[in-house]
Design a protein that fits this description.
- The chain is globular and about 70 Å long.
- With 320 residues, it is mainly alpha-helical.
- Helix 2 packs across helix 3 and helix 14 (258-269) packs across helix 16 (299-319).
- The protein has three domains: 19-144, no CATH class; 153-211; 240-319, no CATH class.
- The protein starts with a helix and ends with a helix.
- The protein has helices spanning 2-5, 7-37, 41-65, 70-73, 94-107, 109-114, 123-131, 134-144, 153-156, 162-170, 175-182, 186-202, 240-254, 258-269, 274-283, 299-319.
- 62% of the residues lie in helices and 0% in strands.
Length: 320
């Protein structure tokens, strides 16, 4: 009898203890983020370790989604390589470059200083939400598809001006104009241009100098490859009904939680196998069912969560 009467008090004490533990973790992570933002090497290493699974997973997803023909010509550098290139093929740069870009975007000083640890959020929770947001995905595509161009390191190492010349060549600028902007002679600039072209040719990367492609809405029926990067360019000639549906879907999508968006995107858009999604949830320590740890989540629970989320999305669309 006495034992039963103390149970509510015990529960309250346990809840208080858990809340205190969460607050302590938050304070530690806030201090960690501030110290890392100031450039402390040990703190930076700890932050990198906290987010490495998130970045590795997103790099794997994004790279494979847009790999296209690279898998046939270059050796994949992802932890789980894919494709069937020749054994003597050069290494693909996109995997490592993508990882580096994400690490910079997610853990730069400004980003870390914005973390406040509110509502029980750990630093890795904060980074996870950003990494699974639409703006982050769009920024990555901007970088990946040349709207913000990645200059290969072997080009940057040629000369202090090599990166600028590379971007100018990609834009189709004349050598005289490039030389004038750099304050160099045309002879020097032309020589550097030739070195860049030769190096790219040796590495079978001359296509990196191709300028961004624009799409004419009047020629969309001429066998355009809509699976390329141009598919990311907004199309404004949709029927009004389709525009309304897309707008309603986008508004409903924003009302889903980050985990709900992640599961739908992984299973429906990326068409990933349920086992791969479950493995990702375990790596990121994300539970989709109250009281069930990520490690104990099974395929049936995952499919149920997907169906429930789709129903929720449809309901949000109906609500407007």
């Amino acid at each position: 009898m006495n034992k039963a009467s103390t149970l509510p008090a015990d529960r309250d004490q346990n809840a208080a203890n858990l809340e205190g533990a969460d607050n302590e973790i938050n304070h530690e992570h806030v201090r960690l983020a501030r110290t890392a933002a100031q450039g402390d090497p040990a703190a930076r290493k700890t932050v990198n370790e906290l987010v490495q699974n998130i970045i590795a997973f997103q790099t794997d997803r994004f790279c494979k989604r847009f790999c296209r023909e690279n898998q046939y010509y270059y050796l994949c550098t992802l932890p789980k390589p894919w494709g069937s290139p020749p054994k003597d093929a050069p290494l693909c740069e996109w995997g490592n470059a993508s990882y580096a870009w994400m690490l910079e975007d997610l853990t730069n000083a400004n980003r870390l200083l914005q973390y406040e640890g509110k509502h029980g959020a750990r630093l890795n929770d904060y980074i996870y939400r950003i990494a699974n947001s639409l703006p982050f995905y769009e920024r990555w595509k901007d970088w990946r598809f040349g709207r913000k161009v990645h200059v290969p390191t072997y080009i940057q190492d040629m000369s202090p001006d090599a990166g600028k010349v590379f971007l100018a060549l990609r834009s189709g600028d004349a050598i005289a104009n490039i030389a004038q902007r750099l304050g160099k002679s045309e002879t020097h600039t032309e020589s550097l241009c030739q070195r860049i072209v030769i190096e790219l040719t040796k590495r079978n990367r001359l296509h990196l100098l191709d300028p961004p492609t624009t799409v004419s809405l009047s020629t969309l029926n001429q066998d355009d490859d809509e699976d390329g990067s141009d598919a990311d360019i907004p199309c404004f000639d949709l029927a009004p009904e389709q525009q309304e549906t897309n707008a309603a879907l986008w508004q409903a999508w924003k009302k889903l939680s980050t985990v709900e968006q992640f599961v739908l995107e992984a299973m429906l858009i990326d068409e990933q196998d349920a086992n791969d999604v479950l493995s990702a949830l375990v790596k990121l320590d994300i539970s989709i069912t109250d009281g069930v740890p990520a490690q104990q989540t099974n395929r049936q629970q995952l499919y149920y969560f997907r169906r429930k989320t789709l129903a929720k999305l449809a309901q949000r669309m109906d609500e407007g």
